[in-house]
Every structure is written in structure tokens, then in C-alpha cells.
Amino acid sequence: MPEILQLLWALLVIIAVLALAYLFTRYGAGRLNGMFRPRRRRMTVVEQVPLGRDQRLVLVRMGDTLYLLGVTPGGVSRLEKLPASELEALEEPPSGDPPQDGAQGMSFGEALKKVIDQRKKSGRP
């Protein structure tokens, strides 16, 4: 009879340890993780756009600068560096006036051609 009691006691201890481990990972670990994190993040992901399998564009804000990054399985490439004021201008609600450059009625192909032409004029690839 004492062997059965020892076996039941060991089983009860194992169940208690598993239950405590579950409760700690469920509720306690999240609170402890916040203690070691810096209060203010210096880098934030503003937006991500998937382009294909394992490929995406990521807009990252670091301080007063925005970086447009291309992310692929082969690495991360900086595509553009912009001042944060450009993002704020994009986030402003459009006024009743039509845009000056006529971008509202522009198709994707026209917009892409415009960006390529601008890059050629500035001498960037």
C-alpha cells in the first residue's frame, strides 16, 4: 500500500509543477518581460506591405527619419531615407482641393513611371 501512495504523491507533484509552469508562462512571464524593456522605443515599424513570398516593404521610423526597407530572405536593403515630415504630410486628411500633382487619378503604372523618372533625374538607380 505505501508504494501506491508514493506513486500517487509523485503524480500529484508532477501535475502541480506542470500547472504552476503553465500559469507562470500564461500570466507571469508577460509582466516580467515589460520590466526589462526600455520605456521608450527608438525604432517603430510604421507599416509593412507584402510583395510576394518572403518579400515585403517595411516603413520604419527612427527619431525624425523614415526608412523604406526591402526585406527578402537574402537580407534587408535600405531603399529610401525620408524626413518624418513627409509621413505627417501623407497622414493629413485630404482637403477638398484636388492634389497639385494630379496623383489622385493616377493609375499604378503611371505612378510607377513617375517614380522611375524621378529616380533617373536624381541619378539614383
From TrEMBL:
Keywords: Bacterial flagellum, Cell membrane, Cell projection, Cilium, Flagellum, Membrane, Transmembrane, Transmembrane helix. GO terms for cellular component: bacterial-type flagellum basal body; plasma membrane. The chain crosses the membrane at residues 6-25. Residues 88-108 are annotated as: Disordered. It is found in: Cell membrane; Bacterial flagellum basal body. InterPro entries: Flagellar_biosynth_FliO (IPR022781), FliO/MopB (IPR052205). GO terms for biological process: bacterial-type flagellum organization. Its main location: membrane. Pfam families: FliO (PF04347). Belongs to the FliO/MopB family. This is Flagellar protein. The lineage of its organism: Bacteria, Bacillati, Bacillota, Clostridia, Eubacteriales.
